[in-house]
Design goal:
This protein has helices spanning 2-23, 40-50, 53-83. By secondary structure, it is mainly alpha-helical.
């Protein structure tokens, strides 16, 4: 009885989430049309030569991941201290 109600609620939520996702474009950058501009790839290549965007993003994500793990472990340790 309760399982059927929960299943119907989850099915409804899934349907709503799919409907919202169908409204979104496939790519958020599709409307920019930057890739079709002449010379855009060349300019971005030169910018990327002096400012290595890819490695900077890699380092930023790994740094933020480490900070998130640090705060998560810290929170768990504080929680464990409160339980004792």
């Amino acid at each position: 009885m309760i399982g059927n109600i929960i299943d119907s609620i989850l099915d409804w939520l899934t349907t709503m989430a799919k409907a919202v996702l169908l409204l979104l474009p496939e790519s958020p950058f599709a409307s920019l049309k930057l890739a079709t501009m002449p010379g855009f790839a060349d300019v971005m290549g030169w910018i990327n030569y002096f400012v290595p965007i890819g490695p900077m993003l890699t380092l930023l994500t790994s740094y933020l991941g480490c900070v998130a793990i640090w705060y998560g472990v810290r929170w768990v340790l504080r929680l464990a201290q409160y339980i004792d």
